[in-house]
Known about the structure:
Layout: E1 6-8, E2 11-13, H1 26-37, H2 41-47, H3 54-71, H4 76-88, H5 93-107, H6 113-121, H7 133-139, H8 147-154, H9 161-172, H10 178-190, H11 194-207, H12 217-227, H13 231-241, H14 247-262, H15 269-275, H16 285-298, H17 301-310, H18 313-316, H19 319-331, H20 335-343, H21 351-360, E3 372-374, H22 391-401, H23 405-416, H24 421-433, H25 437-447, H26 453-456, H27 462-472, H28 476-487, H29 507-514, H30 526-543, H31 548-557, H32 559-569, H33 576-581, H34 586-607, E4 614-616, H35 617-627
Amino acid sequence: MDKIIVSVGLFFFLNLTTIQTSNSSNSDVDHLKNLINQKQFNKLEKLKGKIESDVLTRWVHYETLLHAITRNPDTPLVEKKLHEFIKENPDHQFSEKLVKSYLKNLDKIVRSSEHLKNKVMNLPDASFKDTLTSVTCLKNTGLEIDPERFQKLVVENETSIGCQWLIKEWLSKKRMEERFYIDRARYSANSGDLKFSLQILDLLKRRFDKNVVKANESLVVKIIHKSRRNSRGAYRLFKNNEKKFSSQQKSYLLLQLGTAFFGITHSKSWNLLIQGLDSVAQHPSSTLEIVARMALRKGDFKVFYQAYTSFPDETKKKDNWKYWEAVRLYKKGQFSKAKEQFHDLTDKQNFYAYLAISQVNKSKEYKTNNRSFVLANPILSENNISWAKNDYLKDILKLFKSQTFSIALPEWRFFIKDFSTHELLSLASYLSDVEIYDRSISAAIYSQANIGFKFRYPLVYKDAVIKACKGNNVPPWLVMGLIRQESRFNKEIKSSAGAIGLMQILPKTALETYNKNQSELDLTSSTQNIYIGTKYLTKLLKQFNGSIPLSLAAYNAGPSRAKKWHADFSKYNTSPAMFIESIPFKETREYVQTVIISSAIYEELFADIMLERRIKKKNIILNVNEILSKL
Length: 631
């Protein structure tokens, strides 16, 4: 195999003929990764014509162009290279990312929306162009559009560069009422862009009467901005200036601070929320969703409904809020409306679908008990696909192996985006055979076919799991569900936080659990990792009295947080599903939901593993209900 890596001083330099697609190794990927991390962009530029791998070439082009855009975006050379990249990769996520960076960096140096608009209009055609909010907003600058269209474009897009220019244009022309722009300043602060919030307020004072912007509104947006990062500091700032605020400002900030305190389970959070509830309709959807979760934790469907009715239509369409609104309707005795909303969820494959089916099955008119999935291998007709010889796939898998996920994931999505169901299942089967289970699961999920069920929920490491569970008195299906979510059965994966292996265990936790010397610890060993992870899970189950939802929350977010959430929740007569919905961290909330569904499916798989077995959906539903029976 040709070696094209030559050592020059302390750095490596690739200066021989090529990095060949078929001959590229994991070390090639690691070397490129090191050059990028060390910002050796001159060396990367010299490599461009010497790499024959499409995947690695695009990566180098992307990184060097991204660097050039960051340094000096408004040059003919950068514009030319960006246009060339988009033309070559019109449907690739990298093109979209480059355009976003291009606009962001141009915005720092240009002085007019017209200049930015011209840049956008000159971009080559690409599938993402009309879906990028910033691009759409810029295209509408200088045009006579109706107020409804304007609001649809900019509301909750206040941190988008193009929308900021459009907002400033309309404000300077005094189109829309003053109140509209004050809300945009507050939404922007809530989304993290305090600079633009203050720009809006300053422009308001200059373009309208100075009295339009109430005194201390700049302090209001500063407290909003601070509340999402330092809730206690924001509360102190509010209390120190409370007498300065108008009743409307005070109400808005009380609700804002209440939702911010919810994230740290502060005892004042609910009272603050109630005091500011009359301002609920003025808040962005992200804040309203927190209000709804706080209400569910308290079992207060009146407050929930106040938040729900203020949701934008897109938020109301989310599966979780459709489900909880159906629960509210059911509790109010509006059974037909509730069942109709539950029915809309039943054909999906997520946490809320299983909850909805449980509710629907209470009705005599509608039963889903006869539904099933096929566990057997899908019958795949002969095809000419030889995945083992596919160089494109090889390079993508090397990117995953090197854990260069920011590059590997867009390349993976680009690779499979146009595959048929048959091709996806064929790919899933191949990847399963070569024990690359995380990509096999992904391909099966993309297929959206129930016949790919076996690949979505592989029964790998089953014997090691059963053995570890017997010694620790933990159900093996729970461990399988947890492994699937933690690592997708990739035993070598390491997280940015330092967690390792199948059950993503931190070395410190492993040493405390394993009670052995560090020299004996090998968390990339599947057997050892499963044993330690199962033992730790046993400890959590004991700590939380056998509650699976609480133990899973503790596994993901830490026992102290789970304990705080439960202590707050246990004061009210609400369901385990409500508790899960009320978890303030999105990652943990979705983690618990996904592991519960996976575990319920694995429980059915473990019940009677047979090659031709059909997995009954009704049994999975029963398993979900059993898992949720104790908190």
